[in-house]
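seq:
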Amino acid sequence: MTTQVALVGGTGKLGGIIHRVIDETEGFEVGRVLTSRSSVDELDGAGLVVDASTPSVSIDIVRAAVERGTNVLVATSGWSAERIALVRPLVEAAGTGAVFIPNFSLGSVLGSALAAAAAPFFGSVEIIEAHRETKIDSPSGTAVRTAELVAQARADRGPIDAPHADQRARGQQVAGVQVHSLRRPGVVARQDVILSGAGESLTITHDTIVSADAYAPGIRLSLPFARDARGVFVGLESMIDIGIGHAP
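struct:
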């Protein structure tokens, strides 16, 4: 049986990649493409909602999908742990599934997991993320998720050293981690997690170099998982065993 997908934001860059992957994936079909201005009534009858809209619209899409008893795969950036907590009770009460993927790149997930594994051994952790100038939100969802994983991994060690965090030039604090965002042409997506201790530094870098095709394997993995999920899941690490542990 083919799952009919309502793809929100299907005319954007990421939405276009998702559309292509769905077309190539057996058992899934794009039944309708919505923009950020479409009525949520167009979600009626979908077997799965895939949201690649904008941060300001995404929460309404998730709520509308849950109200219809439809599972939702969220590819839109801007979903912090605090924001996910707002919709978690709705998802659990409805008995549906909501899967939030900050980044569909497998390499990005590994980079975040490596940063979390290393975080307890270093007192200082900072994140620098760069995207093309057209990305409308900052920090990126990947940076937010990485910071949250780092903070969880250091729960028994206490807060990260973040001197002068009140100064605007020090970036934005996410879960106690300083995050710095660059928006410039010539970049697809790059994240550096810099961990520092006495006399040494470790930098974990993930770079999407040529195109966004790096996201296709993660999208293919996420579609059946999101269709069958019950409850709330965050990140590709929810569906793959990367062998070095991860925070829930």
